[in-house]
Amino acid sequence: MDKVSDMLDLPDDDTLYAALLARDPAWEGRALVGVTTTGIFCRLTCPARKPLPGNCRWFASADAAQAAGFRPCRRCHPLGATAEGDPLVRDLLARLEERPDHRWSEADLLALGHDPSTVRRAFKRHFGQSFLDMARAARMRGALASLAKGSQMIEAQLDAGFDSASGFRAAFARLFGHAPHVLRQGTDLLADWIDTPLGGMIAIADDRALHLLEFIDRKALPQGLRRLSAHVGGRVGLGRTAVHDLTEAQLAAYFAGQGPRLDVPVVLHGTPFQQIVWRALQDIPAGQTRSYAQLAAAIGRPTAMRAVARANATNRIALVVPCHRVIGADGTLTGYAGGLWRKEKLIAAERRYM
Question: Is Transferase included in the keywords of this UniProt record (predicted)?
Fold first, then answer.
């Protein structure tokens, strides 16, 4: 069993078996079941027929299950992140990657043999948004790139697949918190897109430091952009600086397993207490986790767990300020604004840095 798994001790067999029967998603990334009669190991959420209690072995990691001689289930795909275990999600994500500029609709889903309501529920469960929302964000990415390169508004509108300027402006404002013409003003803070294996991110920086780094599908992104804009007097435009290039290069190394620490210079826009919490997050090494209580104790405020949790939730510089490394006291992967599926995958990926 690896060191991260050692940190998350498994509870008693009765608790785990009850979670298996309930297909409890709270145990995703924390426990796996090996079935001695089949030699297969599964997620606790696997839809397969449930084994008898006496035929179950419990593991904290896929590595431990494989080391014990079990092979991965072909239904729930326990070697991948949660979303990767859903064939419907895998299929549609692959299609979206192939055709990011396509104007996906419910008619397209029906033509592929998918029930739109089933697709909606699956994507909401894994990503907190629908597939069509993700498709619109992908089209907006193209529009952002066009505007950053100086394209006329009508060209960017067409690139994003919108028939009307008002529809384009409304979608842009929902995503970024500003109308396009506001973002195009000459300013000293610039927004640009960075691709990662876990999805696109919006990075806002000046020539010296990073001010915001968020996954594009985070629900609170528009609110975060509005707050940042208000904090800097509306000085947010479109473009790229050397800090964007540095951030992108370090993220690439991080996801490739070659750079455990993201040491991009940052400006933390928050209260003094929030800034203390965010700096403490940066002190957590990759491959390790902390509970809210441990984080509160680390900053000398052991009774301020709720305040620490609120500060953690309001972090606007994802990954560089690694709020995903904070978990529940019992080892559960508690809420993450970027999506629990990302938190699961980030913690799993960071095991290589232990």
Answer: yes
